[in-house]
Amino acid sequence: MGMADASSTNVAVKKSASVREFVVTTVRNEILTGALVPGQRLVEGEMCTRLGVSRTSVREVLRQLEAERLIVIEPYKGPSVARVTWEEAEEIYFVRELLEVQAVKLCAVKVTAEDITNMREALARFHKAVTETYDRRELLDSTTTFYDVILNRCGNHLLADMLRGILARINLLRSHSMSLPERPKQSFEEMSLLLEALAKGDPKAAGRAAIEHIHNAREFARNAMADRA
């Protein structure tokens, strides 16, 4: 293969990857923001037309979202948006608390001034979404950015990878809790307390703030899921 052929192949691979990531992000956000509801069937042909991609790309995306447990693919029925029971949600919150509190404590002794600045910027985006736009996608995106700093700085790659492995389902539950009008403002206050503890380099205070945040999120998610049921 010549240099020109290799270059063309690399461009095609990058383009394919970017298209797949765009579609994954789009469909994932549709699920997290409620545009696609639990139990809704996902028809490949309709998705191809709506998203402007090939059936192969759609199938790759569906497999990835199945791995994230945001969709289920059943024999003879095809793919549909996953339903999360409260029993499953409790398991997710239990594991989240075990992992996230430790990540926060580790981060508190390693966090840098640049990290704190990035977290403040993410929190400012969150606050704007709460007080001005109430953009649910921005609420989720800014929260993810906020916690990405913690995962990147905690210094334990296995711990961070385990949390990222359940991140899609955490965000799904987060979208439930954020659907209640009073939760976003309260969440902002809890995240602010967590950030200040990190800025002071106080692992114990950061751990307590993380526990309170997770416990409150759990209760709001339970109420939101009960209302929907």
Outline of the structure:
The protein contains ten helices and two strands.
Structural write-up:
The chain is mainly alpha-helical and 229 residues long. The chain folds into two domains: 3-81, Orthogonal Bundle (Arc Repressor Mutant, subunit A); 86-228, Four Helix Bundle (Hemerythrin (Met), subunit A) (Up-down Bundle). It contains ten helices and two strands, in the order H-H-H-E-E-H-H-H-H-H-H-H. It has helices at 3-32, 44-51, 55-67, 86-108, 113-133, 136-153, 157-165, 167-178, 183-199, 203-228, and strands at residues 71-74, 78-81. The chain has a two-stranded antiparallel sheet with strand order 1-2. Strand 1 and strand 2 form a beta hairpin. Helix 4 (86-108) runs antiparallel to helix 7 and helix 5 (113-133) runs antiparallel to helix 9. The radius of gyration is 19 Å and the shape is globular. It starts with a helix and ends with a helix. The model is unreliable at 6-14 (pLDDT under 50).
Keywords:
Arc Repressor Mutant, subunit A, Four Helix Bundle (Hemerythrin (Met), subunit A), mainly alpha, 229 residues, single chain, 10 helices, two-stranded antiparallel sheet, 77% helix, 2 domains
